Amino acid sequence: MKAYDKKIVLENGKEFYGYGFGADKEAINEIVFNTSMVGYQEIISDPSYTDQMVCMTYPLIGNYGMTDEDYETKVPTMGGLIVREYNDLPSNFRYTKTLSEVLDEYNIPGISGVDTRMITRIIRDEGSQKVIICDADVPYEEALKKVKEYVIPTDMVSRVSCKKRWYSRTPNHRFDVVAIDCGIKHNIIRKLNEKGCNVTVVPYNTTAEEILKMRPDGLFLSNGPGNPEDVQEVISVVRELKGKLPIFGICLGHQMISLALGAKTFKMKFGHRGGNHPVMNFATGKIEITSQNHSYAVDVKSLENTDLTLTHGNLLDDTAEGVKCEKDKLFSVQYHPESAPGPQDSGYLFDEFIKLMEKEEQ
């Protein structure tokens, strides 16, 4: 049998040996798991995974390679990738590079051959924790010491947000939308373009005054990594602009809207990551199968003291999945209606945003 060349050591002391792929480097991150069966390219290139090492529960990863058109950001910032079996011989006529080549290009380490089922159960039972990926011959005590001393950063949004504003236009547009980039997925911008919106993407620290000067018909708050309480710049913008123009938020954007209107957030035990979370739409009674990626959630009880109404709830753990405030012309959801990759149940939310902007025109 081929000798192991890499290993991971968890904060709880568990050690797993495997085979390295991608970048040959040592890295320490928070470890999380993702239950998606497809879409590893979109996961790897989602800025919400900045400084996180992702354990994929689906056992075979890499089998369809990487495709130039399917990235969710220009520069992937994931911390690392943990898989059961890595396939370096893709079978897909669209692929342009292998997964390992892309990880190497963006300095992201990977490890295969480990027991991802056991790792997932550890995270599920004990919660998200820190982890190191390193060479197999690094002494156990040294690796564990590094893990325990590592401090999870709080500046992820400032690192992944664009540094200058940029534009995504569509022919014969109806509305102009400003999107605050906290780590925005490109398919969100594509969906807004499809609905007839020209989109101006701006850095996370753009002020309310600067946004109003652009005379937008609506404001969008993006997904992104980390604790929403660390992004006070965006929370302040929501407080200043609520009621002045329609506002729509997704994931981190949902949390920041809730904080701006007086609700509270908390860190979950292991978060939601995957494309199979059932969410109840309280207005229609329908259950949507949703795509999710977050470590924090809005405290349902804290909504009682705000002007926000709970619109969606998670059927697995009763966490808040959507809120709205008609008076302030805003709404948000915790999950990802742009669905890259699927499911497609929640695309109607972009239509709801369009309706809000149409109402303002009247």
Low-confidence stretches: none
Rg result: 20 Å
Total of helices: 10
Order of strands across the widest beta sheet? 10-12-11-13-14-19-18-17-15-16
Order of SSEs, N→C? EEEHEEEEHEHEHHEEHEHEHEHEEEEEH
Oligomer state equals single chain
Relative strand content: 25-35%
Search tags:
10 helices; single chain; 19 strands; 362 residues; globular; alpha/beta; 24% helix
Description:
The chain is α/β, with parallel strands linked by helices and 362 residues long. It has 10 helices and 19 strands. A 10-stranded mixed β-sheet has the order 10-12-11-13-14-19-18-17-15-16, sandwiched between helices. A 7-stranded mixed barrel has the order 1-2-8-6-4-3-9. The N and C termini lie far apart (71 Å).
Brief rundown of the structure:
Helices cover 24% and strands 31% of the residues. It contains 10 helices and 19 strands.
Record the SSE blueprint.
Blueprint: E1 6-10, E2 15-22, E3 27-34, H1 40-44, E4 52-56, E5 60-61, E6 80-82, E7 85-86, H2 99-105, E8 109-112, H3 116-126, E9 129-135, H4 140-149, H5 156-160, E10 166-168, E11 175-181, H6 186-194, E12 197-203, H7 208-213, E13 218-221, H8 232-241, E14 247-250, H9 252-260, E15 265-281, E16 287-298, E17 309-314, E18 320-325, E19 330-333, H10 348-361
Parallel strand pairs: 3-4, 4-6, 5-7, 6-8, 11-12, 11-13, 13-14, 14-19
Antiparallel strand pairs: 1-2, 1-9, 2-8, 3-9, 10-12, 15-16, 15-17, 17-18, 18-19
